Amino acid sequence: MTTDNNNASAPLRYSSFTHDPAGGNPAGVVLDAAALDDAAMLAIAAEVGYSETAFVTAADESARRFRVRYFSPLAEVAFCGHATVALAVALAERLGPGDLLLDTPAGEIPVATTVDAADGTARATLTSVPTHSRPATAEELDSALKALRWSREDLDPALPPHVAFGGVHHLVLPAGSRTRLADLDYDFDALTEVMHRHGWTTVHLFRRESPTLFHARDPFPVGGVVEDPATGAAAAAFGGYLRTLGLITAPTTLTIHQGEDMGRPSLLRIDVSPDTPHTRVTGQAVPIT
Asked: For the region Disordered, what residue ranges are annotated (predicted)?
C-alpha cells in the first residue's frame, strides 16, 4: 500500500473516538504486515504499547478489501473496535472516503468512512458481526464482583448482568450509581484469571443516565492494560445486550461516554435496531504525532 511513510510496515498511531489526540483510545496501525509473522506482530504491538494494534496482512485496494488482525501487547484478539476505527480512518486518508470491507478473525466487518469537507475530520462507522447476549451465571458474576471488589448491592437492580458478544465476549455489569462507576480499584491479577477462565475480552461496566445516554468503563487486564478509554467492540456487544433485553423497540441512536474517569474522554455512538442483530459503531479518529 502506498503511504506517506517510507516504510509501510512501520506502525502509525491514532486515537479513536475523539477529535483530540489527548483523548480517546490510542491504537497502532500497520498498513502492510504481509511479511510479518505472529511473533513479529506481537512484538510490534508490545513496542507500540497501546491496548491494540491493527495489522493489514493482505490488501485489495481496488476492491477496498483488507485482511486484518489485532494484537494487544500480550496476545492476539479476534476483534477490536477502536483499532478498526483507527485503521479505517488511516485508509480513508490515503485512499479517500468510502466503504471498506475488513476480513477479521471474528468475521467480515463493513466500515463506511467519511471526511468532513470543512475541517478534514475523518469518521468511521463499523457494522458488527451478529451480536447476542445471555444472563451471566451466578459463578461468573460472583467471581467477577470479587475481583472488582464490588458487591451485588453495587449493581443496578433494574438491569441484569449479562455476557454479551459483538465479535468477542464481554461481561456486562450495570453500576448502581455514577459514583460506583467512577470508583474503580480492582484486583488486576484476580480479574485477569477470571476473564481468561471465562473467555471475556473486557468487563463492560456501565451506568445508564437516560434511555439513550450511558457512561462506561472497560477493564482490560487480559491485554495487559488496566482500562480502555474507549472500547468499540464492547459498544457493539452492548447494543446487542440492550436489544436482547427488549429495550430497543425502534431504530435508536445511543451515546456512550467513556474514558472520562481516566482523563481520556471518548465519545462513541451506536445505532441499534430491533430488526437486526448487528450494531453500528461510529467514531472519529485523529493521528497522534
From this structure: 269-289
Q: Return the residue matching grid coordinates 465519545.
A: 267
Pairing of strands 213-220, 200-210: antiparallel
Over residues 224-242, mean pLDDT: 97
244 within a domain of the structure (yes/no)? yes
Q: Which one of 98, 127, 156 terminates a domain?
A: 127
pLDDT at 1: 56
State yes or no: pLDDT of 46 exceeds 60.
Answer: yes
Residue with cell 455514577: 178
The whole-number pLDDT of residue 67 equals 98
Q: How many CB atoms lie within 10 A of CB 6?
A: 6
Q: Residues 47, 52, 139, 140: which is the catalytic one?
A: 52
End of a domain among 127, 146, 179? Answer: 127
What residues contact residue 78 under an 8 Å CB cut-off, 6+ apart? 70, 104, 105, 106, 167, 168
